[in-house]
Amino acid sequence: MQQSNAYIITFSVILTVILGLLLSGTSQVLGPLQREAEALDKKKQILGAVISGDEISAMSPEEVNAFYTSHIAATVVDINGQEVTEKDGAAVTAENVDIAKNYKMPAEDRLYPVFIYHAEGNPDAVESYILPLYGAGLWDAIWGYIALDTDMNTVGGITLAHAGETPGLGARITEAGVQQRYVGKEIFDESGALVAVEMQKGEGKDYSSDPHKVDGMSGATITGNGVNAMLKAYLGHYSAFIESKKSSQAVAAAF
Amino acid sequence: MSTETVEKAIEKKPAEALFSKRRKKLITDPLVDDNPITIQVLGICSALAVTTQMKPTLVMAISVIFVIVMSNLVISIMRNTIPTRVRIIVQLAVVATLVTLVSEVLRAFAYDMYKELSVFVGLIITNCIVMGRLEAFALGNKPYDSVLDGFGSALGYSWIILTVAFFRELWGSGSVFGIQVFEYISGIFGPDFKLATNGLMVSPVGAFIILGLIIWVQRTKTGYVEH
């Protein structure tokens, strides 16, 4: 009886339905909490580009939210650096722009959020501009946020994250030690052309004298290449915005 | 009347103490003598990967304990209804469901841990210890015994990975559970004294070395020889 095909099929169907209900039920119940956790994590990543990871992990979720609200202003621009406030009749806010979804569109049609880090409660005292990044690593997507100082050239900090890089190799892009290598590097060369910052092959060399190179990750050259391509592509997409900020600063400096 | 007496006679027989000698053995055996990692050499993959620090290792250990105990319980309850021909798939479905539950809960309540452990929570599904206990024990034993057996095996796994993690974090990062031990010790001996950390311990190779040492010490003590 227990070995008959009919029994096996019935058994499998019932088991599948029960397990399926259990899983979808859990997903429904935990869904809101998970989205909250993800939103908080996104804020932490954005802040991670300008303040140290230790400081962030010492904050409670409420403190992170409060700090974010008092220090981050945001805007959305298009490929020409023009501010976008609505698209297809819906209001656009930087927090709601899904970088991953936009990544699938042609570069000209994408929305580009800009997060502006400013002195507490004073949006005019800008300290740095934080730009999102998105690209492909070795196995899966990689993304991050890069903070540019107000000269629009010096890297103030970077956070990198990944969906499925190899633990211990490519996954090391999330480590503070790796991200720290980018601080103080420059994205434009002397002639003003965009060269971004390139992670090199191999590890353990000193690139402190070269403003466009950082030490690589041993065993994770392809992930490093992905990071390089992502940086170059997104800084390119933001170049109109970067130029506009640069020239407005030049004007301000002239006065 | 007569059937009643027969039933009573049967009921009396399994009145085994809650923690009888045999049941205690179910828990204690996998701790040392039949340890899933050091003797059976199962579950090595996650033992190497998550053990750079104590905190994620503890979360991993708790997750594995939950999955093994619950899957042993569920499979043992269903053991007489599971068709033999599809038993592996059924076990896999139950284990996968439990692992997904753990993963979802972590994602909701401990998102940082969820990110750090990443694929390794999902990989509990393929942890040989889980399926091994289901095949070898839960399919042929009563639920309570199966729970004890699963708990024993999971504890055997847990104490080994926690030990590995303790030494890797101590020597690799100079801390235990994130508390800077090396800094504190260096402070005692004055400003010029500094305990150095070893980068090897942070890489998976470090786990191999520590695990190898644990297996060596243990087998020397118990006299276990592979056949």
Automatic annotation (TrEMBL), chain A:
The chain crosses the membrane at residues 6-25. HAMAP family: NqrC. Pfam families: FMN_bind. It is a single-pass membrane protein. The modification FMN phosphoryl threonine is found at residue 221. Its EC number is 7.2.1.1. It comes from the Bacteria. Composed of six subunits; NqrA, NqrB, NqrC, NqrD, NqrE and NqrF. NQR complex catalyzes the reduction of ubiquinone-1 to ubiquinol by two successive reactions, coupled with the transport of Na(+) ions from the cytoplasm to the periplasm. NqrA to NqrE are probably involved in the second step, the conversion of ubisemiquinone to ubiquinol. Its main location: membrane. Its cofactor is FMN. Keywords: Cell inner membrane, Cell membrane, Flavoprotein, FMN, Ion transport, Membrane, NAD, Phosphoprotein, Sodium, Sodium transport, Translocase, Transmembrane, Transmembrane helix, Transport, Ubiquinone. NCBIfam families: nqrC. The keyword Transport applies. This is Na(+)-translocating NADH-quinone reductase subunit C. GO terms for biological process: sodium ion transport. It catalyses: a ubiquinone + n Na(+)(in) + NADH + H(+) = a ubiquinol + n Na(+)(out) + NAD(+). Residues 137-238 form the FMN-binding domain.
TrEMBL record, chain B:
GO terms for molecular function: oxidoreductase activity, acting on NAD(P)H, quinone or similar compound as acceptor. Coiled coil: none annotated. It holds the Pfam family Rnf-Nqr. The keyword Transport applies. GO terms for biological process: sodium ion transport. GO terms for cellular component: endomembrane system; plasma membrane. Its EC number is 7.2.1.1. The chain crosses the membrane at residues 58-77, 89-111, 117-134, 199-217. It catalyses: a ubiquinone + n Na(+)(in) + NADH + H(+) = a ubiquinol + n Na(+)(out) + NAD(+). Keywords: Cell inner membrane, Cell membrane, Ion transport, Membrane, NAD, Sodium, Sodium transport, Translocase, Transmembrane, Transmembrane helix, Transport, Ubiquinone. It is found in: Cell membrane; Endomembrane system. It is an enzyme of class 7 (translocase). It is a multi-pass membrane protein. InterPro entries: NqrD, NqrDE/RnfAE. NQR complex catalyzes the reduction of ubiquinone-1 to ubiquinol by two successive reactions, coupled with the transport of Na(+) ions from the cytoplasm to the periplasm. NqrA to NqrE are probably involved in the second step, the conversion of ubisemiquinone to ubiquinol. Belongs to the NqrDE/RnfAE family. Composed of six subunits; NqrA, NqrB, NqrC, NqrD, NqrE and NqrF. NCBIfam families: nqrD (TIGR01939), PRK09292.1 (NF006777). This is Na(+)-translocating NADH-quinone reductase subunit D. It comes from Algoriphagus kandeliae. The gene is nqrD.
